[in-house]
């Protein structure tokens, strides 16, 4: 360190030779070549820096050339300036594109229709803005609200037959299971018991497929699962009410008595507006041994054959059950056991009465009439 301190503090003379500046150190008599691009004296840190890419080696002396180091410092100085310019340019372009897009949207969607409307008397710019606002408002309303306040036509009148109850079924997860493979693509598997469900319930229920799928997807699927025409009506995603990210089936828009409507779905959110009108089944995973639709047929058939005036009074008892059909089977089994026990007790009592009657008639025979 003492040598370098003396070196840096020594009196020196400089001359120019070619593209280099030659410094003669007076007290050691050694020349040092420094490029002309760097016209400043070397600092101690630059002379001894281990990161200098090129070094002039002399006996007992190591001095770094500053040309590459100066280029690196220039790049570091230009880096923030370049990034700042890029950010400004990006913001400027984003502003121009945003303004152009806004003007284009107002021009396209706010164009004056051929038929006069309520905005004709406003200034031209106000007309464009109000028509654009109305277009997007109506589009949002179309997504959120059902397409109609009366999704189904009026019930059939005599002499035509109108089933007393309405059954609303979801398609995917309840009746069908989607499967995908690389070889076949998308396929839909029919749930066991589907044909039996339609055949048993068609005389008792007006069957309506109300699915959250689009019509383009669901229409051919319904045709394939119902070749005999048991399904009365078909409703799709555009008929649902969009609430908190869920497609909800609003029973009040069906144009049917809510006391006679049963909704079957694999999601409770699908009938969240009328929770006591729905039966939530477990989503079918494609198992071929599944018996859920057979149990559902028995459950709904029991409701219809007993002439229940308001199905909500029955379904309310199963609203908190994790598996409503399993709970129904357990209750039905318990009622059957109680009924069998009652009949057995009644038969036993009757046999006892017959035995006592025969014993009494043997010991106290009736007198013969003259």
TrEMBL record:
List, in alphabetical order, the Gene Ontology terms for molecular function in this entry.
cysteine-type endopeptidase activator activity; interleukin-2 receptor binding; protein serine/threonine phosphatase activity; protein tyrosine phosphatase activity; ribonucleoprotein complex binding
In the UniProt record, which is one GO cellular component term? endoplasmic reticulum
Name the SMART domains on file: CPDc
What is the predominant subcellular site recorded for this chain?
mitochondrion
Q: Which domain of life is it from?
A: Eukaryota
Coiled-coil ranges (or none): none
| Subunit organization | Component of the TIM23 complex at least composed of TIMM23, TIMM17 (TIMM17A or TIMM17B) and TIMM50; within this complex, directly interacts with TIMM23. The complex interacts with the TIMM44 component of the PAM complex and with DNAJC15.
Describe the function of this protein. Answer: Essential component of the TIM23 complex, a complex that mediates the translocation of transit peptide-containing proteins across the mitochondrial inner membrane. Has some phosphatase activity in vitro; however such activity may not be relevant in vivo.
The record's family statement is: Belongs to the TIM50 family.
Protein name, UniProt field: Mitochondrial import inner membrane translocase subunit TIM50
Name its species: Ornithorhynchus anatinus (Duckbill platypus)
Lineage, top ranks: Eukaryota, Metazoa, Chordata, Craniata, Vertebrata
**Gene this protein is translated from:** TIMM50
